[in-house]
Amino acid sequence: MPSSMARLLLPPLLLSPASGAWLAPAELTRGLGSTAGSSATPAVMQRRRTAASPRAVLADPSAASAARANFTPAKSVDVGVMLLNLGGPDSLENVEPFLYNLFSDPEIITLPSFLSWFNGPLAFIISRSRAPQSREGYAAIGGSSPQLATTLEQGRALEASLARRGIEAKTYVAMRYWHPFTEEALKAIKADGVRRLVVLPLYPQFSISTSGSSLRLLERMFYADQELRQMRAVVIPAWYTRPGYVAALARLIREKCDTYADRSQPTIFFSAHGLPKKYIETLGDPYKQQTEATVGAVMSKLRRLGYMNNYTLAYQSRVGPVEWLRPYTDDSIRELGASGVRDMVTVPISFVSEHIETLEEIDVEYAELARECGITGWTRVPALGLEQDFIDDLALAVEETLPLTEERPKSDINEGRPVSLRVVNDLVQLRSKDQEIEFGPVRYEVRRTGLTPNAELINGRIAMTSITLASLYSVYDGTLTSDILEGRLPFSQFFGF
């Protein structure tokens, strides 16, 4: 199956390989809100910016050395590969600022547009309340997240695999919520004079809250930087059924199943990271569909090899009072135990590196729950990490994508150069962004009726003033924190919610 790839032209333009259709960036990251409304408290901002480079925040000396190599200036680099990932705290004291960065992202906690100003304060409250429990989890796995060290190793392995294909490339790690941030990676890319850039999220399945959030941030930075706008860049937004990825997963599952007396006896339990249900039903997020497609491809591969195991897919890591994708991992474990399942091979399907969700949530919490439910033959498939067939498949995806970097960006239409007709078609749509909404691959024009924009602006300011006064009353009344943690608006008592 051809790799999922997208063209990021500057101004960005994205290509969907499955359909061959050209998509505007917001169509790929549909449903994402603007991040401009986030605000941080001075204390958290101070801590978030303390480390100027990965060297200052890495706990592992070998990882620190790798990070230094990642940011070594070079005269010129022809091909750069930007690896996008979530990131994680490098010490227990940085757990809280990491959580603040996470929860202040509007793609993680989506508030109505008139409440966007509240993202920062809300993130501060949530990060303060969740930090003690999260510190315990990170303490149980060594005091920090191993994700950065693994991602740096994956980058070096990818460079080596590309070199065997005759492609000299340099990888750059861009974490979304902790060092090295996207800004740091782009600074290194500019310093190295990268001519062609492939953006590769290390999330197999696309979601608004993961790849989408990083790509939206990257898009904004490219638009704002004239030097980056001249760079030839492409994006591989998802690779959930690539042959090498599927084969690597199937091989690791086979190895675990082969340790049982009857290799088809254990239930194969796929556990994916959860997502609020509204992302799927309201915003059209493809994550659930792509995750199910990955599971289907892996099981088809196993069936062809003679493994007839029962299997199930569930979703983990839910937080807050809203409904997330079902079935939940803990509920499914209880149900399987009650039905008589005693052997289980657990597969972290949406993770390609070990971190707290695999090392603590699965290996500790869910393993203990499984034993309590009578599942005595529990084992877990490791994250893909540095599996060579997986790395080689990512290298092949990069190689397949590189020819797209030679196509002209649509800014060249102003220079009188030949361009694709698809570029012209995109340019003739002259409606402003606030005159259209996007749902799935289709754009719908919004016809304004009723109040004028100026009247709406005045009404919005009146509403914000009312909300601020109501919130201040909640603080005075002592109910603000409890209201937020229970999922209620802080001024709900005025409206009978």
TrEMBL record:
Q: In which pathway does it act?
A: Porphyrin-containing compound metabolism; protoheme biosynthesis; protoheme from protoporphyrin-IX: step 1/1
- EC no. given is 4.98.1.1
Q: Carries keyword Manganese?
A: no
Q: Provide the reaction this enzyme catalyses.
A: heme b + 2 H(+) = protoporphyrin IX + Fe(2+)
Example GO molecular function term?
ferrochelatase activity
Q: Name one GO biological process term.
A: heme biosynthetic process
Q: What class of enzyme is it?
A: lyase
Signal peptide region: 1-20
Enumerate the UniProt keywords alphabetically. Heme biosynthesis, Iron, Lyase, Membrane, Mitochondrion, Mitochondrion inner membrane, Porphyrin biosynthesis, Signal
Annotated Gene Ontology cellular component terms: chloroplast; mitochondrial inner membrane
- InterPro entries recorded: Ferrochelatase, Ferrochelatase_AS, Ferrochelatase_C, Ferrochelatase_N
Where in or outside the cell it occurs: the entry states:
Mitochondrion inner membrane; Plastid, Chloroplast
- Reading the lineage from the top rank, the first entry is Eukaryota
CDD domains attached to this UniProt entry = Ferrochelatase_C, Ferrochelatase_N
- Any one Pfam family match given in the protein's UniProt record, by short name: Ferrochelatase
Return the similarity comment. Answer: Belongs to the ferrochelatase family.
Role of this protein: Catalyzes the ferrous insertion into protoporphyrin IX.
Protein name according to UniProt: Ferrochelatase
